[in-house]
Structure formats: C-alpha cells, structure tokens
Design brief:
Layout (H helix, E strand, L loop, with lengths): L17 H9 L9 H22 L16 H28 L2 H4 L8 H16 L2 H16 L23 H37 L27 H21 L8 H16 L6 H31 L8 H4 L6 H12 L8 H19 L5 H12 L1
Amino acid sequence: MDADAPLGLDLSLVRGDLPFRIQRRMGLIPEAGLGLIRRAIFFALVSWLPLALWAVLQGRALPGDIAEPLLQHFGIHIRFLVAVPLFILGEATLHKQMVRLIPYFATSGLVRPQQLDQLREIIRGMIRLRDKSTPWLIIAVIVAAQALFEQPSMITHELVWADAAATGAFDPGFAGWWFHFISRPLFSVLLAGWLWRLVLLIILLKRVAGLDLALVPTHPDKAGGLGFLEKLPIAFSLFAFSVSAVVASRLAHEVVYHAAHVVDLKGVLVALVVFLTGLCLSPLFVFAGPLFAAKRQALLDYGTLVGDHGRLVRRRWIEAKALEDDKVLNAPELGPVADTQTLYQAVANMRAAPIGKSAILAIVVPALLPVLGLLSIEVPIKDVLKQLLGILA
C-alpha cells in the first residue's frame, strides 16, 4: 500500500493475482516485497539451464560439434536469459507506477469529491477482477493445448541442435521435450500475463474516464490535467524491450547463419516497433473521448471569452466609448488581450490523448534497441544512427 494514497485508492496489477498467490505459497515471494531477483533467477535457470546442460553433455552446445549448435540459436538464449527475467523484473515498475499515479486522480482534483466513492468502487472492482483465477486458467489451457497439439517436430529448426536421432524421424531428446513442455510454456504464460495486465489497465482507465472528470482545458500539460499519465508507459518499457529482443534475436540467427538479409526484414522490424508502441500506449487512448468533448466545449467557451474581451477593448480604446461594465477588462486573472488569446491557444493545442514525447519514447527506445542490434550485423551502427537522427530531426 502507498502511504501517501488516499484511503481505498491504492491498486497494484501485480500483487494478489493467481501467479502471485502460487509463487508466495512456493516461497518465491516473501511476505513483504515481490521477490523479484530470486524469481528472475529461478525462472531463467528453470527454462534455460536444463537445455544448456544437456547440450553440453551431448556435444551439441558449441560450434564444431554439430552443424547448428545451441550456442548459435540466439532466440533461445534471449528468450530465457533476457526476456523471462525482464518480464519478472518489470513487475516492480508496473507496481510502483500504479500505486503512485492512480491515487493522483483524487489528489489532483480530476475526480470530484462527490465521486470519490465511485472511484473507490472502481478500484475495488479492479482488485476483484485482478484476483480472479479464470483468466489465468484460460491462459494455462491455451498454452497447454499449444504444447500438446503442436509436436516438437513442427518446430524442428529451432530445435535442430536437440535432434537425438542419428537418422530418420526427428527425435527432440530430453532438451527438446523440456523446451517444448517447460521452457516455452513458461515464457508464453509470462508473455500472456503482461498482455492480461494491459487489458486490466485499459478496463481500469476506461472506467475512470467514464466519470465526470474535472478536466482543465487550459492546463499546460496539453492534456486537460491528465499529463501525469505520460509516465505510465514506463511500466511497459521492459516488456517492449523483451518482446523486441526475442523477435530480433530469432531474425539475427537467420541473418548470420541462413543468408537472410537485414534489408529484406525492414518491413517486419518497422511493423514490430509500431505494433509494440501502439499496444503499450493503448490504455491512454481511452481518454480520447473525454478530452475531445472537453476541447470542443472549451473552444466555444473560451472563444466567447476572447470575443467579449476583444470587443470591450475595441470599444474602450478604438471607439473611445465609456464602458458600463468593464469587469472582464479589469479581471487580474485575464489580463491583456494577449493573455486571453493564450488561454484560447492552450485549448486549441489540447492533445487527443495524454500521450507526449516522453510516453512514446518510453516504448519506442527500448523496442528499437534490439532492432538496432540486428541492423548492425550488416549495416554499420553509425550509419543506422545517422539515418534515425535524420528522421527524428
């Protein structure tokens, strides 16, 4: 619980769900904290170490032993030694962002005092939804079905190093079966878990957006006061990096060992970065409706104010007429014509969603780093960076 959060408004999308409860019973998660380091190491070793040990013992790990040893399959190492630990470590950022930012809806005044009980009920409803076992059981069933119906022989290329058959049909051996029934399903569950948390966040923010929020169209954050949510995508930075790294590492194997060319993969890589960016920023788009409605009404309201102010200025200084009521001209919060025009311009500059450069970069940069690593195999990294700077300039 966040000590600074108003009573009943602290929410974590990590603590309390079914995997959290199971891991706590296993002793992986202590009573206090998330047990991140021990869990990251444990699941990385469970998913990768049996494969590596078997490959070493069977002479299938290093170049020279067989045509495509385990060492050359970058995707396997990145998936289990990088993505799996980062999926777990990323829970800390998501937890901290949620317990810090969600209460700000109340402390900032965006949620009106008379609607605080509604906000608390939204939080309680999300806790109940987070703690449901059904979504995780569905994930488990889907992952198990994939493992049961997709035989290792259908993914022979990624497991070619594990083929224990001297001749004839593909035999995955111990490592192949471990990969198929333990390692890959573990990765799939963690990946699906992050997607489920994205869905939970969308539901949460959608319900909050349905309240009569006290948006401020002239707010300097250009998002009606919702600009603080730009920090929320940081919670998905490690997720974006992990997914991008897994895809890029698989493609890197094709480039290095199977004569694929980076140039031919540009479309896939661009689509990957765009997809990850849109996916991780999607929760913030639920505020597009309220922001559009606030902007549309504010343009009328502030347009009227600027018009009234301008007409009074003209009557006083151009037409030299006495004014019976000059409260608008003398109001200190309005000031001169330039200030009223600034208010109107601030409304006109409102964004369609609380998404700015910082929010976009929080996803684009980590998603782009593995792609740059892949591109550098054939293209000097200096040239790649120059092209990127040219696009961004």
